[in-house]
Amino acid sequence: MIEPIRISARQVLYMLILVRTVPVLTLNPSIGAGAAQDAWLTELFAIGIQLIMAYFMFKLAYRFPKKSLYSYCEFILGRYLSKLINLGYVIFFISVSATLLNELAQLMVIAFLPETPIIVFIGMAIIATTYAARSGFEVIARLSELLFPLVMAIYLLGVVTSVMDVDLDLIKPVLAQPPEVLAKASFVSAAGFMYVAAIAVIFPNITNQKGMRRLAFLGLLLIGIINSLITILVIGTFGPAQAKAISFTGLNLYRYVSIAGIIERLEPLVMVIGVGTIYLKISIFLYCAVVGIAHVFGLKNYRPLVLPLGTIIAGASIIMFPSFAVLTDWLAAGWVVQNYIFELGIFLLLLLVALVRNVPDTRRGFHDE
Length: 369
Known about the structure:
Elements: H1 9-21, H2 29-35, H3 39-63, H4 69-77, H5 79-111, H6 118-135, H7 137-162, H8 179-190, H9 196-202, H10 212-238, H11 240-245, H12 249-255, E1 258-259, E2 263-264, H13 267-296, H14 303-320, H15 324-332, H16 334-356
């Protein structure tokens, strides 16, 4: 099922940057993966891994530019096997949504309102995200346009006001960690790029498809630089040991911001962009999940599915992650494996099957270069 909507490559780029940069302000995976003072380097190394993930997705997308992920999966694998893969992607999107929902709720409870039951934040988020997903992807894309300049302004403010407090000796010696530790941390960080499959779902709706790959690659380079810079600020302010022990590193960084002794403790601003961006991400993946269900079962309208699936995601978020420790363990292990299977492994498999079976492409004069 492909909705008759049109979104621009610029809007997709905004969503890509928001999806990958803001998590560094909350849970920074590279610091927790043992890279210590070299965590900022792993954010740069992760760029190469993310480019590979995006490359295989775009190879398929440009081969079938008028088909979504669900459609060309059926075109390549056949009717029955594709249903299994497509249902796998639906479960993947549900799992990602449940993870993000719990991360948001834990952020609010631990950092701001510890006396409030976590179900309150989960319920509020589901109401907002189901409304956005039901309204259509164009609404979600416009939300990214609203959030993007605000997020970039907050980043710039944090960098300008924190840079004088950074002790560069805390990030030395450079490359002190063994190569296997840096490699593991890089793969963990790159696993956060869970937007590949979402782009594949909405690709037929992008107006200027030919320039999308170039924009995405430039966006990934920018993301790596931003994440690396924020990680340097965090480690240079707290030190590698304390940064690893802090639950929400970037958030705590903004607590030390002081502008002429007048404007201080800017973490509420980080909370606003963090909440808004996680709402955006959950809306994206909820939309992709309901569209997938509609495609698999041949439904003409996905909207009646949004609220029931949102309720399922809320329940899954509570059941899967009964505590913050369970969430962090999942992000360090199961999350990584899951994301590489659905963001890289299956795309590579589909491309190989298409080449081996000589599945004809549907571009009809369309060129991606």
